[in-house]
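Sample intake sheet
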Amino acid sequence: MTSAAGSPQAEAEQDAIVLFWDIDGTLLTTGRAGVFAWEAAIEEVLGIDVSFQDYPTSGLTDVEIARLLVEKTARAPDPERAARVLHHYEQLLPSRLHYRRGEVLPGVREILDAVRERDDVVSILLTGNTSAGAAAKLTHYDLFGYFGHGAFADGTEDRPSIARRALEIATEQLGRLDSSQTFVIGDTPHDIGAGDAIGARTVAVATGTYSLEQLAEHEPWWLLGQLPGPVEFLSRLQAK
């Protein structure tokens, strides 16, 4: 239902802040425990015992990782096997997350607690994880309850497409959005690109594998070493 211009609901929609959250390196770190699930999935599907401990996965979607790992080990593209590897990875991930000591990153829980108490701030996932992979990680680190909606990599490795889906979810929930009130929070250039693709402001945090200097090259709206406290964070987002 569309609200009349100037009505309280329309004003609330225009004033709402939407936070689109990346997961790995932004909300939490698993200590790369997911690599153990990828290795086991490759062994189950391809029968190959291989180590991916040093394989770079930061900023890649789960669909992209599965495709690249199959190409690396099988020496040729194989979409059907990549899909099977991804499915096995999703099944194995919950039991592998305890292999490494990860953590919720600084400032995250405090901000999520603060915004959960507000009607004018909405948190939505925008992640390269599949929905199953995201649920496993958020459940393991007790963050699942903070998010009611999200856009995931199920069926796609294109992050701008995931970002557009996240924006659709926000629009369906809140109505018309002001792009100056939408923020993509992430730790890689891929997240900055996703925010740019939907006209959102980008908050880049150097809590993953990319340095402040590397992130600065992609010109985020706000560049941080780590997330600040909720008062400073929300004050900056609300400043016109």
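Comment: The chain has two domains: 8-30+102-238, 34-99. Confidence is low (pLDDT under 50) at residues 1-14.
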